[in-house]
C-alpha cells in the first residue's frame, strides 16, 4: 500500500488504493508538457492560479517518486501542503491528506520519524470533524488509516512504543471498516494487515512480550498462506526464531530457522536472504548446548552462507566479511587455527577496500591474527602484526583507550621475548653499519 499515489478528485491523497488513482492520470496527461518544458519558474508559471500550480507540483512529486528522486519529491510535497492550504483553507480534508502524504514521504524516503510525527499531528488537526457526505466520510477514514500507519512506524523509530501500539491497533480497526464498505479490496486489506502485524511484532518484542509478538507472526503467516511470497514468509520465520532465541528456546529457534532455510533454498539458494538465514543457523548451532553434535552442521551452514553472500553481494560487502569473521571464530574454537589464519590474512585486502586502512575492522583482524601467532610461538611475526594493530588503534581511539592499551601490553610483552630482542639487536647493528 503506497499513499504517495494520487487520490480521488483531489490532487493529494493519503492512500494508494486502486480506485483513487484515476484523476492523477488525467492530470499527468494535462501537465506533462509543463513538467518537461522547464516552465516552473517562467512568467507564465508564476502567473498560474494556485489550483493549477497545486496540480503541477502533485504530478511532479509523483514523477520524482517514480524516478526515485526522493529529495525533489519531498520538496514538491512541501509546496503541495502550502498550496492546498491556500486553495482549500484550514480544517479541510485535502489539507489533511497533503500533510499525511508528506508525513509518509519523510518516513518512507528519509527515515525521519520526528518530521513524520509533526505532519501526522497536523493531518489530524485538519481533518473535518463531521460530514453528511458518505464519500467524504470514507475519504476521512482512508486518511486516518494512512495517518495511523505512519504514526505507528514513526513511533517505533522514536522509541515511543505505547503510541506505536495504539496507532497500529487503530489502523487495524479502520482496515476492517474500509473493507466492509468496499473501499479496499481483499488484496489491499491483506497487505495492510501484514504491515500492521509486522509493526506490532516489533512493538511487542521490544516491550518483552514474546507471546504477543509470536501471535503477530502467526497472524502474518496465516495472511501469507497460499500467496506465494517466499521472501516475506522467510522473514516471519526469522522473526519467530529471534523471539524464541530471546527466551532461550534454542530448539524452537532452530526449528523456525530451518523452515525459513528450506523455503529460501527452494526459492533462491544463492540469494541474499538464503545467505542470511544460513548465517543465522550457523551461529545458533555453533553456540548450542551440544556443540559436538552441531559442529558439522554449523560448519556446513557457514560454508553455505559464505557461498551465497559471495554470489549475491560480493567479497568486499560488510555482510560477507562479517559472516567470514564469525566462521573464523568458529574455526578457532574448534582448533583449526591454520585455516582461520589463512582466511583472515586473505581478508585484509578486502577489509581495507571496504572499510579503509585505518578502520576498526582492519585493527580487529590484525589483533586476531597477532593473537594466534603468539599462541603458535611466532613471536617476531606476532610483534610485527601487533605493532601495525597498535598504530591503527591509537589513531582511531587514542593511546589511552582500553583497546589501544590492551594491544600495547601485548607489544610490550612481545618485545621482551628472546626472538624479538635478537631481531631488534640485529636491526640496530645493521643500521649502525650503514
Automatic annotation (TrEMBL):
Descriptive protein name: Tetratricopeptide repeat protein 23 isoform X1
Residue ranges, annotated region (Disordered): 1-21
Record carries keyword Coiled coil: yes
Origin organism lineage: Eukaryota, Metazoa, Chordata, Craniata, Vertebrata
Organism: Austrofundulus limnaeus (Annual killifish)
Biased composition (Polar residues): 1-18
Coiled coil: 404-434
Lineage top rank: taxon: Eukaryota
Keywords, ordered alphabetically: Coiled coil
Amino acid at each position: 500500500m503506497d499513499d504517495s499515489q494520487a487520490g480521488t478528485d483531489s490532487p493529494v491523497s493519503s492512500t494508494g488504493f486502486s480506485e483513487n488513482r484515476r484523476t492523477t492520470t488525467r492530470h499527468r496527461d494535462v501537465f506533462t508538457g509543463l513538467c518537461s518544458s522547464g516552465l516552473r519558474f517562467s512568467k507564465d508559471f508564476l502567473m498560474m492560479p494556485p489550483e493549477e500550480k497545486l496540480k503541477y507540483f502533485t504530478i511532479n512529486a509523483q514523477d520524482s517518486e517514480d524516478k526515485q528522486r526522493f529529495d525533489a519529491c519531498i520538496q514538491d510535497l512541501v509546496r503541495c501542503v502550502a498550496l492546498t492550504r491556500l486553495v482549500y483553507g484550514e480544517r479541510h480534508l485535502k489539507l489533511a491528506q497533503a500533510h499525511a502524504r508528506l508525513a509518509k514521504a519523510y518516513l518512507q524516503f528519509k527515515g525521519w520519524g520526528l518530521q513524520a510525527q509533526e505532519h501526522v499531528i497536523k493531518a489530524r488537526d485538519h481533518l473535518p470533524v463531521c460530514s453528511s457526505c458518505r464519500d467524504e466520510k470514507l475519504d476521512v477514514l482512508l486518511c486516518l488509516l494512512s495517518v495511523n500507519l505512519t504514526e505507528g512506524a514513526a513511533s517505533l523509530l522514536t522509541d515511543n512504543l505505547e503510541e506505536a501500539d495504539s496507532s497500529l491497533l487503530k489502523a487495524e480497526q479502520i482496515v476492517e471498516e474500509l473493507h466492509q464498505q468496499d473501499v479496499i479490496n481483499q488484496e489491499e486489506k491483506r497487505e495492510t494487515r501484514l504491515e500492521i502485524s509486522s509493526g506490532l511484532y516489533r512493538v511487542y518484542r521490544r516491550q518483552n512480550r514474546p507471546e504477543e509478538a509470536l501471535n503477530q507472526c502467526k497472524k502474518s503467516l496465516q495472511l501469507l498462506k497460499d500467496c506465494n511470497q517466499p521472501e516475506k514468509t522467510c522473514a516471519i520465520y526469522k522473526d519467530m526464531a529471534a523471539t524464541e532465541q530471546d527466551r532461550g528456546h534454542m530448539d524452537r529457534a532452530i526449528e523456525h530457522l530451518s523452515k525459513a532455510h528450506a523455503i529460501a533454498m527452494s526459492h533462491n539458494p544463492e540469494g541474499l536472504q538464503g545467505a542470511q538465514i544460513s548465517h543465522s543457523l550457523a551461529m545458533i548451532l555453533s553456540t548450542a548446548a551440544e556443540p559436538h553434535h552441531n559442529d558439522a552442521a554449523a560448519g556446513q551452514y557457514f560454508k553455505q552462507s559464505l557461498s551465497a553472500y559471495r554470489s549475491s553481494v560480493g567479497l568486499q560487502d560488510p555482510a560477507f566479511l562479517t559472516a567470514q569473521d564469525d566462521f573464523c571464530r568458529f574455526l578457532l574454537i574448534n582448533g583449526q587455527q591454520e585455516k582461520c589464519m589463512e582466511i583472515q590474512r586473505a581478508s585484509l585486502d578486502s577489509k581495507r577496500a571496504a572499510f579503509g586502512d585505518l578502520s576498526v575492522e582492519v585493527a580487529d583482524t590484525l589483533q586476531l591474527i597477532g593473537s594466534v601467532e603468539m599462541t603458535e610461538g611466532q613471536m617476531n611475526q606476532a610483534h610485527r602484526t601487533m605493532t601495525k594493530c597498535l598504530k591503527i588503534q591509537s589513531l582511531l581511539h587514542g593511546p589511552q583507550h582500553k583497546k589501544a592499551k590492551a594491544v600495547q601490553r601485548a607489544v610490550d610483552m612481545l618485545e621482551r621475548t628472546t626472538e624479538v630482542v635478537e631481531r631488534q639487536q640485529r636491526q640496530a647493528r645493521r643500521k649502525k653499519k650503514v
